[in-house]
Structures are given as structure tokens and as C-alpha cells.
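--- STAGE predict ---
source: upstream dedup step, 1 unique chain passed
mode: sequence only
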Amino acid sequence: MEKVNITIGSVAFDREGEDTPEGHHLRYAPGTYDIVGLTLLSPRRKLERDGHLTVTLPEQSKMSAEDLALAFAAV
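--- STAGE serialize ---
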């Protein structure tokens, strides 16, 4: 697999995946800047605890349980 070195905003990514400050994991298409996957770490627990889920991509976004209802229904 080809190693990917990219910078998005002020964040430098030196492999095909990168952990966010919240502990989630982003995945990139090989050799591109395209985000192709996001692994969320304990999203239900964080929603119950905080009332929202935060993901930094590099800008921070918050989503409520209502915003994520369809995704949770699928699992």
C-alpha cells in the first residue's frame, strides 16, 4: 500500500488513517485526500453522556442523537 502524506488545514496526516482528538479514526483513499471511512469510538455512550457526538475533521462538528438516528437504527 502506498503511504499517504497530506495536510488538511493545520492538521498533517502521515498515513492512510488518522485518529481525531476525540479518539475516532478517519480513513483515506490511498494516494488521495478523500475521506472514505470514519470509525466512531463509543458513540452511544458519548451521546448519552454529552448529549451530542463531536468529530474533528479538522474542523469540529457536533451531531445529536436525532441527527444519527438512521445510522444507529442500521446497527
